[in-house]
Amino acid sequence: MDIYTQKKRTITTLSNAKISIVKSARLLTILDADTPIYQYPIAIGKPSTPTPVGNYVIATKINNPGGLLGSRWLGLNYDAYGIHGTNKPWLIGKMVSNGCIRMHNDNVEMLYSLVILGTPVYIRD
Hints:
By secondary structure, the chain is mainly beta. The protein is built from one helix and ten strands. The protein has one domain (about 15-125): L,D-transpeptidase catalytic domain-like (Beta Barrel), CATH 2.40.440.10. It has one helix at about 105-115, and strands at about 15-20, 25-30, 35-40, 45, 55-65, 70-75, 80-85, 95, 100, 120-125. The longest helix is centred in the last third of the chain and has 10 residues, at about 105-115. The model is unreliable at about 1-10 (pLDDT under 50).
């Protein structure tokens, strides 16, 4: 969902990008500095394998990792957790992963294009 419809121009990267994830709302928000730009629905970890709360950064980016990771992978600097696409889009909005954050492929492709390595990621309950 595009929060600011007037920002429909093509953006390659955001100079002050931040990613905010609110697990209880199942939402990921991309901010430029403190201004929300885009907001997307997500799937999170199931109760037995919860998505970790904390402050992280994007440590790796992989284009087309394939399989259940969908079209993009953005790895966090914590264990094997990351933000990725999915080959099961009907599960977005649910608690189904092993702790990673899943997004619709078109949404994670936009996120991938907007952020660089080192982009802060804030995960909250």
